[in-house]
Design brief:
Rossmann fold; six-stranded parallel beta sheet; globular; alpha/beta; 24 helices; 3 domains
Length: about 600
């Protein structure tokens, strides 16, 4: 077992090595590669903050709200692939973080929500911010939104509980865990129960060889196959394997909204996005009835990725679905081949078997029949492409996307908040180069996500440019986190689409209720002035041609910057598939 040496955080006990609870906790975080944590101090959790004072290897980012801390931990985990951690005081400090933790659960991201609890001697007595069994019970509250939610009942068991939580967070389908520690335990001496990660959470990259062989045979025998690549391809780092497979068999590739970026959209085989804000290319190819074999990679085929479980998505001959989580395979569509396992490993094995069969001559090589190229000549990649060149006033959101396409670096991390901005970005922005598209509008869709998660993303990848595309509605929820970025010198650039509305809901209501809307409009905020008041650089954008140079300048400045883009609120985004889904739901029709 490794030994600990952390000064004030760790002390020697007679006859054996020991540590304080918080000292042991920090050692486990360091071994998981955690270099930054996010949170807000409060009385019960201050022993952990004091331990961080003596721990130079972990950077503390104190946020303006606990929801921001959870979103930042999520962004950190998404960018680094390592554990994200948020530190929460008891009572409202913990409940404030619940939305961010739920977003991490939906996105399969490993986040440790570490909350304090009042002292055990005060349980049930009405102590300030008591959140135990009879005062709100935060452990039970977090349980549906985590892979594990538990209170430390005995300080001597801290190592065991940490290993259980870290194993749950980092293995299989990853996700958040919540550990609740009474404040009187935090400085308690406990055994030096430290283990290396490989000792308590082995990495398993399994696959079913027989199922892989079946999938290889079906793909080689297909006449018009297609691939629908989801979020799991990005999480599993399987982009190169996806591209190799597509090129090997000349298979067109669409991505789900969450999978955007898994396949380069400037590739001849790209169909761009399917589902929410679909491209005309993907809709035509996938829904025309011609696809005989559909390979779904890393998607549970939920509402947003299927246009509300569109029946026409089902292929004529075979649906092959790959996911690390067996519980989502065949959940929404019947499958013919179930591939359960890690996306990268399974795709490598699938490519191996396809190449073996091709070498044996059992199947002729698939040739490009020219159908996809003909489709692309007949249809535009996006709706109303001429609007992207519109230089008129008020500023058109399509033009904003065109200027972002031109100005975004090829290695940018683009955090997209939930709302109209998601629809515009999914449809009109180009996934090229190493650009990563990170958003939460899949199964959860938390507003305010992109405002704060982008800060955690920049902390995790300081060498990459980070841009957050958010709406004014979302900025109104979490915009104070700009102050966090200013305080710690974290140079995120926020591009805020300011249209004085909750505009995705507004246009949805307009289309569903004969033009009637309710509760969607508010006074247009001067967000440039708000940002300046928070200490950030800021600029208002109102004319075509201004955003591109402003973004380039902001990225070069190395300062947190808000670009307040005042745009035409009446342009209808590509939301029609979502509206059709809602209409079916309201009518009680599942499909």
């Amino acid at each position: 077992m490794a030994t600990l040496d952390r000064g004030a955080a760790i002390s020697a006990a007679a006859g054996a090595k020991s540590a304080t609870c918080v000292g042991l906790l920090l050692e486990y975080l360091k071994q998981e590669g955690v270099q930054a944590v996010f949170g807000i101090p409060g009385g019960p959790i201050t022993p952990l903050f004091d331990a961080l004072y003596h721990e130079p290897a972990i950077r503390l980012i104190s946020t303006r709200h606990e929801a921001g801390a959870a979103f930042m931990a999520l962004g950190y985990a998404r960018v680094t692939g390592r554990l994200g951690a948020c530190l929460l005081t008891t009572g409202p400090g913990t409940t404030n973080a619940l939305t961010g933790v739920a977003a991490a659960k939906a996105d399969s991201l490993p986040v440790l929500a570490l909350s304090a609890q009042v002292a055990t001697i005060a349980f049930g007595k009405g102590s300030l911010q008591d959140s135990t069994y009879d005062r709100g019970d935060v452990v039970e509250m977090f349980r549906p939104f985590t892979k594990l939610s538990a209170m430390l009942a005995n300080p001597a068991n801290l190592g065991m509980l940490l290993r259980q939580g870290l194993r749950a967070a980092m293995t299989g389908r990853r996700g958040p865990v919540h550990l609740n520690i009474p404040t009187d335990f935090m400085r308690r001496e406990v055994p030096d129960d430290l283990q290396w990660p490989q000792q308590y959470r082995p990495v398993c990259r399994t696959f079913d060889r027989e199922a892989v062989k079946d999938a290889a045979e079906r793909l080689l025998a297909s006449r018009r196959p297609a691939i629908l690549a989801g979020h799991g391809v990005n999480l599993g780092g399987a982009q190169a394997e996806l591209r190799e497979l597509a090129e090997l068999l000349h298979i067109p590739v669409a991505t789900t909204p969450k999978g955007k970026g898994a396949f380069p959209e400037d590739h001849p085989l790209s169909l761009r996005v399917f589902g929410l804000a679909s491209s005309p290319w993907s809709e035509e190819y996938l829904l025309s009835g011609g696809v005989d074999v559909l390979l779904v990679l890393g998607s549970s085929l939920h509402e947003i990725s299927t246009q509300g479980w569109e029946a026409r998505l089902k292929p004529k001959d075979a649906l092959i679905q790959l996911d690390v989580d067996p519980s989502v395979v065949a959940r929404n569509y019947p499958v013919d081949v179930a591939l359960v396992g890690d996306a990268k490993t399974t795709l490598r094995e699938l490519i191996f078997h396809i190449k073996r069969l091709l070498r044996k001559g059992e199947h002729p090589p698939r040739a490009d029949d020219g159908a996809l190229a003909a489709l692309k000549r007949r249809l535009p990649a996006v709706l109303s492409p001429e609007r992207m060149d519109d230089a008129g006033a008020p500023l058109k959101p399509q033009r904003v996307m065109a200027e972002l396409n031109a100005a975004l670096p090829e290695d940018a991390l683009l955090f997209i908040d939930s709302g109209n901005n998601t629809l515009w970005a999914l449809h009109y922005l180009d996934a090229v180069g190493r650009r990563a598209f990170i958003h939460n509008w899949g199964e959860f869709g938390a507003m305010g996500f992109g405002v704060a998660a982008s800060i955690g993303g920049k902390v995790g990848a300081p060498e990459r440019p980070v841009v957050a595309l958010v709406g004014d509605g979302s900025f109104g929820m979490n915009g104070m986190e700009v102050s966090t970025a200013v305080t710690y010198g974290i140079p995120v650039v926020w591009v805020v689409l300011n249209d004085a509305r909750f505009n995705a809901v507004h246009h949805g209501q307009t289309l569903q209720y004969d033009g009637r809307t309710m509760g969607t409009e508010f006074h247009r905020m001067d967000l440039a002035r708000v940002a300046e008041g928070l200490g950030a650089a800021a600029r208002r954008i109102t004319q075509a041609g201004e955003l591109g140079p402003a973004l380039t300048q902001a990225l070069a400045s190395g300062r947190p910057t808000v670009l307040d883009v005042w745009l035409d609120a009446d342009e209808v985004p590509p939301i029609h598939s979502r509206v059709r889904s809602l209409d079916r739901f309201f009518a009680g029709a599942g499909k």
